[in-house]
From TrEMBL:
Protein name per its UniProtKB record: Aspartate racemase
InterPro entries xrefs: Asp/Glu/hydantoin_racemase, Asp/Glu_race, Asp/Glu_racemase_AS_2, Asp_race
Pfam families: Asp_Glu_race
Listed PROSITE patterns: ASP_GLU_RACEMASE_2 (PS00924)
One function term, GO molecular function aspect: amino-acid racemase activity
Family: Belongs to the aspartate/glutamate racemases family.
Organism, as annotated: Brumimicrobium salinarum
Length: 227
């Protein structure tokens, strides 16, 4: 195991729980382990009880930020050297108050956009929640790299897909909807698509899509393993 892999990874999760569980599996998959002890030390704070990110953004209800800050404090106390958050919507809040967190932050949006830049694609579709899309979580970073962003017309369809993933139920219906949205973005000229919600690969894994998908969960897991 390298010195990098000896770092303790802190995962600020629970947004939602299935996405966090899937993210941990992806960390294990990203590690070339032959024995149990070859895997990284991971501390997970999974707290689905925090206020809704979407409702805070859309209706100005209670912000989840203070609960995220408390979660990172617990991760630090448990020995984490840095933290990640496998929730794209949460990045809208975290990045606005990054100086309030007690640990270094591995930013999912930055590592994902780095992969997009490396691909050489110049027009990218983004499928995400209301917070991620309307809050332009990816648009600003992509624009800085001279990459055009396209979105789906109806975010309510994305919300339905996300709810299927959050509860890990009725996935076939979710798959059908997600495939329709992928086709919509392809018709708008997208050369690749960012899965900008970590519930999306639960519904339709990127391996099952015959198109370039930037799976944010997978990219973050790989980056965290070698951070």
């Amino acid at each position: 195991m390298t010195e990098t892999q000896n770092k303790v990874i802190g995962v600020l999760g629970g947004y939602g729980p299935y996405a966090t569980a899937d993210f941990y599996r992806l960390i294990l998959d990203a590690t070339p382990a032959e024995k149990d002890w070859d895997h990284p030390h991971v501390v997970i704070d999974s707290n689905p009880k925090i206020p809704s990110r979407a409702r805070a953004f859309l209706y100005n209800e209670e912000s989840p930020l203070k609960y995220m800050i408390e979660g990172v404090k617990r991760l630090k106390n448990a020995g984490a050297h840095f933290f990640v958050c496998p929730c794209n919507s949460a990045h809208y809040f975290i990045k606005k108050a990054i100086d309030k967190f007690d640990l270094p932050f591995l930013d999912m949006t930055e590592v994902v956009v780095k992969k997009v830049v490396e691909s050489g694609k110049k027009k990218i579709g983004v499928i995400g929640s209301e917070v991620t899309v309307e809050g332009k979580v990816y648009d600003h970073i992509l624009a800085k790299n001279k990459i055009e962003t396209v979105h789906v017309n109806d975010l309510s369809k994305v919300r339905k897909i996300i709810e299927h993933g959050k509860h890990n139920k009725d996935l076939e219906e979710g798959k059908t909807l997600l495939r329709e949205l992928i086709e919509e973005l392809k018709n708008k000229g997208a050369e690749g698509i960012i899965y900008a919600c970590t519930e999306l690969p639960i519904v339709l894994p990127s391996e099952e899509v015959d198109f370039l998908i930037f799976d944010t969960s997978k990219i973050l897991a790989q980056s965290a393993t070698y951070y």
